[in-house]
Amino acid sequence: YSTQCENVQAPNQNHFGPVDTAPARRANATFVILARNSDLAGTVNSIKEIEDRFNRRYQYPYVFLNDEPFDEKFKSRISILTDAKVEFGVIPRDHWNQPEWIDEGVAKSWREWMVAGDIIYGGSVSYRNMCRFNSGFFFRHPLMEKYRWYWRIEPDVHFHCDINFDPFVFMEEHKKVYGFTITMFEYEATIMSLWDNVREFANMYPEYIAPDNSLEFISDDGGETYNLCHFWSNFEIADLDFWRAPAYQAFFEFLDYKGGFYYERWGDAPVHSIAAALFANRSQLHFFDEIGYEHPPYTHCPKRGNNWAKGRCTCDPEENFDDFPGSCLSRWERFINGTLS
Ligand code: GDP
Ligand code: MN
């Protein structure tokens, strides 16, 4: 029997061809997934897809975070999906709960106002906790401290194409700080006073504004008003040190004391996006066309060159959010090409 078995593939090889060779080098990077125990099924689906499309070759570790301890079932059903290191962490109470300087009476009446106006998640305190945590705290969690780069994943998302390159190494080699796949308009009612606060901050700390920033992408009138364009933060590949740096630390603290995470319903997407647009140079922001990505109900399906075929994508290029009226991608492309104004 021994001779017959000699041509069987070694366990670290597989049948997917030359793109599947072991990576030359890896970045100091991790996946990060915020989830509840009840998100198990959707989380399993997301991890299975990213493993099949990318990580089974690259073996980047995972950090799962939750405001409550993950149960044994969650941990075991996730851990069997990958050979990479998997860590499960609990979020400290003061990184999650509504802070004591928020006037709960005022916050409650605004929640009721949003519920009456049918604003999505308008009545939810836990959603607000989540947005504040993703804005100001995930990169400070003890399990995240050892890493420089992260890729944010959510339950129930889809990776539609083979990812035959290492986005973290790409970010590092091209001196990027923030990578996205979908950009769209925010619901104005959730961030009514955000831009006024951003302007106040920018006037107080002009030294934090990058010389070649992307203000023109997020404002149609030179900074007077916000045009609501933001990067959809359920997908992010970014530099943790950008959030840990003084500019963003000061920005988050300023916004946090203003209370808009609770009085309004500021999302981590506009907060991250405005910071990336103002505190980084435009060359440091990156649109990953190659990464076919779906967070229902929207999909980014690769369209440049032969990215779609090369990635063996399962998405329909005709159902691409990039071409929908709610997308800011054409504005982004005109901004980057210098054809915006
Ligand atoms: P949406 O994408 O804006 O519709 O919001 P989601 O419901 O997908 O939540 C965003 C992310 O935060 C997902 O990864 C969720 O699993 C996670 N999340 C939302 N609320 C909570 C919560 O109360 N506790 C925990 N642990 N995770 C949450
Ligand atoms: Mn989601």
Automatic annotation (TrEMBL):
GO terms for biological process: cell wall mannoprotein biosynthetic process; protein N-linked glycosylation. Pfam families: Glyco_transf_15. The active site is at E236 (nucleophile). One of its GO terms (cellular component) is membrane. Keywords: Transferase. GO terms for molecular function: alpha-1,2-mannosyltransferase activity. Belongs to the glycosyltransferase 15 family. This is Alpha-1,2-mannosyltransferase.
